[in-house]
Specification:
Blueprint: E1 4-6, E2 23-27, H1 32-40, E3 44-45, E4 54-56, E5 61-64, H2 73-80, E6 85-88, H3 92-101, H4 114-125, E7 129-136, E8 139-149, E9 152-160, H5 165-179, E10 184-188, H6 192-195, E11 200-202, H7 204-214
Parallel strand pairs: 1-2, 9-10
Antiparallel strand pairs: 2-4, 3-4, 5-10, 5-11, 6-7, 7-8, 8-9
């Protein structure tokens, strides 16, 4: 199948037209309107400089249903020690900077370009993008960020500087999302880290069904806080 060239029009090709590796389209921009449309269709940007913006819809898709969250005994014991204070939307700028600095296997540089940083920071200020932070001895030890629409959270990236810091942030997030009635966490592509927490692969068609149902719920927009 061809890779589609986006124009200035606010349109995307159907996700099922993506290449075998998930690549769907190239070009366009990272405006709030285009990003929100992309996520609502199950599409996300992922590229690195100096390449143009690349848009993806992988098949299969890695998802985690909040009811299927799996916490290993060792991680549970670590959580009981209360070594970390976990917060929401307290240090979005720092989280995305640290995520950009995380070295990726077989990759040079980062896919979180300055353009991506600015775009997701704008989404954060609009109340659609959120960060979850783990603090250890007053220092940022790990965290993650993503985008929320309806009853789905689209995880974008995570980092850790202290063992288990990002895992504990993720577990706290998923448990809170469950309390808020979220039905799915989109983990995008498969990693052993996320599979160990209960994420599993589903076909694109099944993901699109999950997405359509989740988008029927109202978006929890604005600054997030844990209920406790």
């Amino acid at each position: 199948m061809p890779v589609y060239q986006l124009t200035d029009d606010l349109l995307f090709p159907r996700p099922d037209l993506a290449e075998e590796d998930g690549l769907l389209a190239v070009g366009g921009d990272l405006t709030e309107e285009r990003l929100l449309l992309a996520y609502s269709l199950g599409i996300f940007p992922w590229y690195s400089e100096p390449y143009p913006i690349l848009w993806w819809s992988p098949d299969p898709r890695l998802v985690l249903l909040p009811s299927e969250l799996r916490v290993a005994r060792s991680l549970m014991q670590s959580m009981k020690k209360d070594l970390f204070q976990v917060t929401m939307d307290t240090a979005f700028a720092e989280v995305i900077i640290h995520c950009a600095a995380v070295p990726r296997k077989n990759e040079d540089g980062t896919w979180i370009t300055a353009e991506m940083n600015a775009a997701y920071t704008a989404l954060h200020h609009s109340g659609f993008a959120h960060s979850i932070e783990s603090w250890h001895n007053g220092e940022l030890a790990g965290g993650l960020y993503g985008v929320s629409l309806g009853g789905i959270f689209f995880g974008e990236s995570m980092f850790t500087r202290v063992p288990n810091a990002s895992k504990i942030a993720f577990v706290r997030l998923v448990r809170q999302l469950a309390q808020w009635g979220f039905s799915v966490v989109d983990c995008q592509v498969t990693t052993s880290h996320l599979v160990s927490l209960g994420a599993r692969e589903v076909p694109r068609r099944a993901f699109q069904t999950m997405l359509d149902r989740a988008l029927q719920s109202p978006t929890r927009r604005g600054k997030w806080h844990f209920d406790e």
